[in-house]
Known about the structure:
The structure is a homodimer.
Chain A: E1 2-8, E2 11-18, E3 21-25, E4 27-31, H1 43-48, E5 54-57, H2 58-63, H3 67-72, H4 76-80, E6 86-89, H5 92-97, E7 100-104, E8 109-112, E9 119-122, H6 124-134, E10 138-140, H7 152-177, E11 188-193, H8 199-210, E12 217-219, H9 228-239, E13 248-250, H10 256-264, E14 269-271, H11 274-280, E15 283-286, E16 289-292, H12 312-316, H13 319-327, H14 331-358, H15 361-368
Helix pairs in contact in A: 6-7, 7-8, 10-15, 11-14, 13-14, 14-15
Amino acid sequence: MFKLIKQEGHARRGEYATPHGVVQTPVFMNVGTQAAIKGGLSGVDLKAIGCQVELSNTYHLHVRPTDTLVRDMGGLHAFMRWDGPILTDSGGFQIFSLSSLRKIKEEGVYFNSHVDGRHIFMGPEESMRIQANLGSDIAMAFDECVGIPAERSYAEASCARTARWLVRCKEALEKYTSEEDAVNPGQVLWGINQGAVFHDLRIEHMKRIAELELPGYAIGGLAVGESHQEMYDTIEAVEEHMPKDRPRYLMGVGTPGNIIEAVARGVDFFDCVMPARNGRHGHLYTWDGIINIKNEKYARDEQPIDPACGCHVCRRYSRAYLRHLFKAEEILALRFSVMHNLYFYNSLMSRMRQALEDGDFADFRRRYAEKLDKRI
Amino acid sequence: MFKLIKQEGHARRGEYATPHGVVQTPVFMNVGTQAAIKGGLSGVDLKAIGCQVELSNTYHLHVRPTDTLVRDMGGLHAFMRWDGPILTDSGGFQIFSLSSLRKIKEEGVYFNSHVDGRHIFMGPEESMRIQANLGSDIAMAFDECVGIPAERSYAEASCARTARWLVRCKEALEKYTSEEDAVNPGQVLWGINQGAVFHDLRIEHMKRIAELELPGYAIGGLAVGESHQEMYDTIEAVEEHMPKDRPRYLMGVGTPGNIIEAVARGVDFFDCVMPARNGRHGHLYTWDGIINIKNEKYARDEQPIDPACGCHVCRRYSRAYLRHLFKAEEILALRFSVMHNLYFYNSLMSRMRQALEDGDFADFRRRYAEKLDKRI
């Protein structure tokens, strides 16, 4: 399902087919955790900002409105009116970051909901059942995301368990998608590599999960406390052992610079809440670096956020107006900022794809990898 | 500038020309107090929801971002990118409802800003200067809005002062709009009738301000504590004395039923924060009455908010999805609700205009005046 179109060093220009359309890679997935994009963006807005893949969250949707409700409403695509590809995170990361009183056992995890405290059990089969109910195009494996720094012995045991869980995930999803009333019979499972920053653990785990010949593999458990260099080194170490004919997804990363560096190291898929979160704080991306729109110097600035940007906001509104909306605490400030920042991330990917096609990626990387992360 | 097209009883179907286009009346003006519509709606969205006139606020914009800034940015139309007609409230109502430590003198009002507490003086000339800087199409007179219940003696003195202020408003706005660098040379002044619920005061005041032959007149100081019947009676009493060839604007009113009843009594222009505020609380208008979308019974309801509604939200999304957005506290819930409710109000006006053209207004009123205000 993954077609490698061109390569420059480790960087890859590819295409990945899903039941809801073909994704051009490298790609940034736009995060709609609870079946809605932060800042008041709708499915229609997603098209306008150049989104290719929407990402929703198994844990959040299981808790509210529940995956059985979403299933009864025709699945996530119908529920939120987004007809493009959807990837669902497995819930693993959220269980480890949001829930309280969790107990990890071989069968899965016992924890309390962060919303109402009720007891929930989730294991590989439950996560797959939920994702099958949601009907995403790509379901992610149920894994344990080990924080960094991590004890080597703990990381090792966790990796082994995550690998065992993956076998169960595969069996479960195959079963659920072949049911007669499956929401999305074409839904596939991607595996997730773990191992903290222990390269040998990462590699061993990667080799083991590659044997399952899944249609895609993610690198999980990064951007959770390690330095950028540690992250890049870990990607380099594990990338060699990832199947070349399958897409690679670096979960939860990152700044524009991080993404450029990861593309340079062979990654194809990304997601991150950063552009939306930064937007809500008035930190806006431009091709010259990051501006803080609340800054006094923009009070009478008639230019758009970024004159080089073609988004809805930059084509119509001034920095002065956007700054006013922030100062006046209008919701429109959030909407415009998130819209611009997500458009910027999607454009960043589109420009990288173009650079790869043109054989100019090294130049693009030199020009932008540091610049885009700087506050100006 | 006002053309009366058709009448049915006291109800009027008309047209009012402004420098930014012709307004079909009766009309509901969509409130963007701080140069932005609550719920994250933009100028582009205003077109989509059928808005004819946008209403912004002199007091709020004077405080933040300041009217001189808006003027430097080319006026309100350019600043917020809305090229249709704009009416600006004079600031009078907000001074009396929001500010603290206000002192009313013949020259104007001394008060403290509700944002940063700084001392501000606003009189008729200041209000006109600000509105000229904003460059709205219709500037409202600077008046005192007397609360209800009111002492007769106080209401009488206040009415007299408001009438004296109106003469100064007229002179000031004529001066400012004839300046060479006027933002909107075609800006006009509308007078505001006051007098609480004392019919004789209302009538006397109306007669007095009618002598100034302004292009429009508002009924102010209602919907501030009196009963609906008192409001209707006051409109009936004063309406007879309002010029027939000028539009009438009932400020800050009201429910769909209130608006239908006021149209029946000869009113042409309306504005109210109610549809946006109700939307934010999940109270949504339908042609069968008001629903509370947070209600459990909508959890799996695949219907749109109102199957009879043609708004962006009703054409695409289910009640189940909207309820989920509210429960998950997503900003998109506010956006969709405000969008729907404002579209509903604009449609209500459009259907009344059609009924008036068809000579069916009495029937429309019978059918909807009570029904639309009921919670179902």
